[in-house]
Specification:
dUTP diphosphatase activity; four-stranded antiparallel β-sheet; binds magnesium ion; 10 strands; 160 residues; binds deoxyuridine-5'-triphosphate; metal-binding; globular
Length: 160
Amino acid sequence: MSASSQQSVIGPLIGFVRLPHGEGLPLPAYESAGAAGMDLRAAVPEDRPLLILPGRRVLVPTGLVMEIPEGLEGQVRPRSGLALKHGITCLNTPGTVDSDYRGEVKVLLVNLGDEDFTVERGMRVAQIIFAPVVQIRVEERSLANGTARGAGGFGSTGTA
Ligand SMILES: O=c1ccn([C@H]2C[C@H](O)[C@@H](COP(=O)(O)OP(=O)(O)OP(=O)(O)O)O2)c(=O)[nH]1
Ligand SMILES: [Mg+2]
C-alpha cells in the first residue's frame, strides 16, 4: 500500500459517492499511517479554476456525497500549509457534515492573505476528520446543581 493510499482496516466504513464532476479525481485517503484527516480535493472544472480575491470567500465543490453512519460527523477543517503560505482557511471551521446529509460536501474557503489565490481542479483544499458525536436529551430545570467553580470563568482561575 502506498503512503498516499492508507486505508484503515478497523474503522467504520463510510460510503463515498462520486458525482459526475468528481470523476477522475482520487478518493480521499489518509496520507500517512497516523493521519487524522483525509484531504478533500476541489472538483472545479479543469478549464475554470476558482479565483479567490483577498478578503473574499468561495464555496468549493468536492464532487463527493458521503454516507456518514449515525453516531459520527464529518469535520471540514483547514490545511495548515495553505493557511501559512497563502492565508487560505475555512471560514466556518470546523465545518460540520451531519450524518443524515446526502448533498455534496463543500468547502467554504476564505482568502485572508493579501494576494489572489487560484483553486485548480484536484487541489487539496481542506481535510475531513470523522469523529463520534452524541445526541443528548434536554431536560429543563429551574436551578443548576452546585460545583466548586460555580459561575467563575473567562480567566477566573488566574492570569498566568
Ligand atoms: O463545511 C461544510 C459545512 C456544512 N456542509 C454541509 C453538510 C452539513 O450537514 C450541511 C449543513 O451544515 P450546517 O448545519 O453547518 O449549516 P446550516 O447553515 O445550519 O444549514 P442547515 O440549515 O441546512 O443545517 O451542509 C458542508 O458540505 N461543508
Ligand atoms: Mg444546521
